[in-house]
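Worked example 2:
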Amino acid sequence: MTDFASPVLPLLASLAGGYLLGSVPFGLIATRLGGAGDIRKVGSGNIGATNVLRTGRRDLAAITLLGDGGKGVVAVLLFGTLFSPTAAAVAGGGAFLGHIFPVWLGFKGGKGVATFFGILLAISWPVGVAAGATWILTALVFRISSLAALTAAALTPVLFLLLHQATLPRLWLALGMAVLIFVRHDANIRRLLRGEEPRIGAGKPADPA
C-alpha cells in the first residue's frame, strides 16, 4: 500500500489543487466588482477576457487575462515545487479543467486559451514563448483570434519536441489541452469553415439557432 500511495497521492493532490485554482472565475469576479454586471449575460456569455472586452472595459479584460493566465502559472509552479515535474503537469491539467469546467458555475466556464498560455510558460517557458509567437504571427496574418488560438494549440506538442522540452507528462498535457481547446471552439470552427468568423476588431456574429 505504501509503494502505491507514495507516488499517487501527490498527483491526486496536484490534480485537485490545480482544479480548484483553475476554477476561480476571474472574468465573473472582475466584471461584478468592476460594476459591469454578470459577464455571463454579455456577448457570448463566456467568462474569458475576450468576452469581458465586449463590456467596453479594457481594464477588466486585462485583469481577467492576467488572472486566468496567472492561475495556470501558480498551479504549475506550486505543485511542481512541492512534489515533482510530473505533478506540475498534472496540476496544469487540473487548472485547465477547472477553468473550462468550474464547479462554482455549474461546470460552464471559458475556452481556456489564457490559462493554456499561463500553463505553458510555467512548465516550459521556451515552449510558452514559441506558442505565444505562433498566436501573434497567425493573428497578424489572418486577423482572426480563434484561428490563432487553434493554431497555437495544435502546434504545441510539436513545439515541445522541436525545442527538446518533451516528456511524456508534458506531451499528454499539451495534447489534452489542444483537444479541449478545439472542442470549446466548436462554434468558431463552424464559422471558420463557413468563412464567417469575425476578424480582430470586428463584432461577433450571432450563431444560427
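The chain has ten helices and no strands. The CA atoms of residues 86 and 169 lie 6 Å apart.
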